[in-house]
Amino acid sequence: MLIYKRGAFAMFRKTGKRSNKEDFGFYQEIENIKIITNQLLQGDLDIEVNANEFTLLGELAQDVSFISGSFNEYINEVSHVLSHLSAGNMAVTLNKDINYQGDFLPIRSALHKIKQSLNKSFEKILKLSNQMDILSDQMEKASSVLANNASNQADLISSLSNTVYEITEQTVNNAENAKLAAIGMEAIKKETKTGRVYMDQMLTSMENVKNSSKDISHIIDIIKEIAGQTKLLALNAAIEAARAGESGKGFSVVANEVNILAVKSEEAVEKTISLINNSIHTTQESTEIASKTADSLISIQSSIEKTTHLCKEIAERSENQAQSLKDTSAIITNISEVVQNNAAYAQENSAEACNLHDISSQLRSVLSGYRLKSQIKNYPQRREMEKEKILLWIEQFKNQLQGINNSTAEIDRVLIDIVRQKDEIECVYVIGDNGKQLSHTIMHPNIQLEDNEDFHPAIPGDNHDDKKYFRQAVKDKDRIHFSHEYISSATGGLCRTISCTYKVNGQDSNILCIDMVINI
């Protein structure tokens, strides 16, 4: 500025002597330039310089206007890009029509590099997130299957352990029973030996009976012979008595009695012989049976000895088997504990896999709020269509407001109806042409405000005359103005302010301001 001023003073001196009127015009133009530069210093870049109003400093005024316009473009561009990046739109593009010059070129380069770097980083993060999502899903399924299998294995091993325990108990019982059987067989063996001794004694006795029967037969033969001789003698006596006549009658009676006795003796002998023969026959049969029984006892004794030996072997092997089963049961118990621990670990892994899947889902949800260059297609065309749609809405809203009085309550009533019509609206409010807010700031009911203690919605009476959206609407009342995109202090999302004027009662003008949510 000083250079231009010095140049202007130098140019003014070169022209020679000037009139007081020219001096006044020169200093007046300098004051106007100072007013414009003060606006720039205060951050108001929305200025217009009419070069025709400057006759002496027209070139300087044009340069100031150019600087203001360039700064305005630079700031809007930087705000636009940073706001989109902050809102997660990594696909935001730089305006090719803005000509960065001199020391502003590194700003454009830095913005481009930041955008490219963030886009690449988030693309990698998104790719890793998708891979992690797939892996976590696979891990969750595998862990679930592993947990189920481990649980089933634990149940099977527990059942097997119970079965082995029961078999062990049965084997122990079998061993005990085999021992008892062996003891019983030993007792039977002893009894069999005793029975065999008795049987041998019985055979000996029966042999003695047989021998005695032979002796008795011999004696009976003698008795039979004696009976025959006695009978013969009785016959001879009877003959002799008959010869003697009367004198021999007594002897005849005796002879007859002797004969009768001899007959009876012979009959008794025959019966005795028959009985002895039967006894001998029975004794022979008994001897044969006893002999066979003795042979059977020998066989039984041999079988009992073998059975006793087998019972002892069964008892011994059952004891060994029982011990092996106990060892197996202990091993199965250890395996069961390991499997149960594995099942517990598998369940924990399954739970961790679920947590990982939840974290992956949360990460995917967070990343879904970001838009990468590869994901966004036809973005400029969509934005243009949205802008045309918004212009139609604004005209409808203006018509709703033009037919009411200018009271806060009445304006609020209409604004509440307006804000409910469109989900894209963050808030809406009305400002008077003096810069004072007339309505309350009506927030959309679905808007969730950030936990920001510094944010307070504007209320009636708040001043907006330093706001660009207000100044633009006042300067150009026939247009609908769209601000640059920025981060909302209310929600932290990307939005822009749309402002326009509408007539009240055909005279005064109010400014309708709508903060629109921008979906990237």
UniProtKB/TrEMBL annotation:
Q: Which GO terms describe its biological process?
A: chemotaxis; signal transduction
State a single Gene Ontology molecular function: transmembrane signaling receptor activity
- Transmembrane segments annotated in the record for this chain: none
> Which residue ranges does the record assign to the Methyl-accepting transducer domain?
128-357
Q: Which domain of life is it from?
A: Bacteria
Keyword line: Chemotaxis, Transducer
One GO cellular-component annotation of the UniProt record comes to: membrane
Q: Which Gene3D superfamilies match?
A: Methyl-accepting chemotaxis protein (1.10.287.950), PAS domain (3.30.450.20)
InterPro entries registered for this protein in UniProt: Chemotax_Me-accpt_rcpt, MCP_chemotaxis, MCPsignal_dom, Sensor-like_sf
Q: Which family does it belong to?
A: Belongs to the methyl-accepting chemotaxis (MCP) protein family.
What name appears for this protein in its UniProt entry? Methyl-accepting transducer domain-containing protein
